């Protein structure tokens, strides 16, 4: 018999037992759905992380008073930071970066780079404009004239901070898009030179930022940015720790810039030669790498779930095929009496097993892709089609079907036609 004839016979047998085949297909589909769904969601998270941290620029780094910890903190930089932290004296650890230290670094760093000093004044403020107000989740940031460039913000209207703003610390502010929409409506008219209130402090709006988008990990548009000198005056800057951002003009000089920044800041913080740094330098791309390394655990867990489910599905499929052989003993005897060889019987049952398994895999891949892309919608990232895992999932199911169908197929092919025809 031709391959087409055997395959058609196998497909007809599967169609004749729809309930049994459907239950088996569903078991396999849910296992593949879990695998592909989690992996698709992970790819969406990676795209979101990449877009978030790529906007900071691969040629920038930050100086902070303590190590950055994300999730479990298993990135390579986190391990290095932990090792450094153990060598720092307890009385010398996590000392805030003062305004004087940040200002001195900005003035003395002679490397061809742009230096920005910033501080987080409030992580949950309410902003008012007349009768309109925002939720109490607006981040109030203090920055200098280089902060917008370092953070990759672009002005839609208005102007950046000037020298007079920085020197006097007067109450001027630049609004993020989400804040402006909440206070002025979607049209965002007459924003510039209007007055708002952040908590109990009034500010004059001098600029409106272009939208950066919400990645799901950070909301870059729910911000009010004022000058770092204003935050010192209004929010009491002596107790704050300041962040120093450095954007190198040539990415090839990144390591040299980090080395010079480390040496200069050691001098500014009066560290001895035999003392470890009590500050931490983190590159913008290394933050994404820390997140990626933690997402690898999710991928491993998804693979384990898929393998366990497929293993259970293989056992179930083998059992169903054995039951099918027992139920169709007389049919097998008729086929042999009509001239079907052992090879044809074996192929028929193997094809049936593969058809059921592949149909389950295809359904699971489709459902997993749809479920996983719900994360894409929530994070406002592009639709993800995990081609590798689609082919891998279907191929894996075909292999499971082949292995599950071999033993029942051999058993069916060895049946004696005379005994099989007498079977009731």
UniProtKB/TrEMBL annotation:
Transmembrane segments annotated in the record for this chain: 21-41, 295-322, 349-375, 387-410
Pfam families per record: FtsX (PF02687), MacB_PCD (PF12704)
Cellular compartments annotated: Cell membrane
Record bears the keyword Lipoprotein: no
Keyword Nucleotide-binding: no
InterPro entries hit by this protein: ABC3_permease_C, MacB_PCD, Macrolide_Exporter_MacB
GO cellular component: plasma membrane
Topology within the bilayer: Multi-pass membrane protein
Keyword annotations of the record: Cell membrane, Membrane, Transmembrane, Transmembrane helix
Top-level taxon of origin: Bacteria
MacB-like periplasmic core domain segment(s): 22-262
GO MF assignments: transmembrane transporter activity
Signal peptide residue numbers: none
Ranges of residues in domain ABC3 transporter permease C-terminal: 304-417
Similarity section: Belongs to the ABC-4 integral membrane protein family.
Official protein name in the record: ABC transporter permease
Organism of this sequence: Chitinophaga sancti
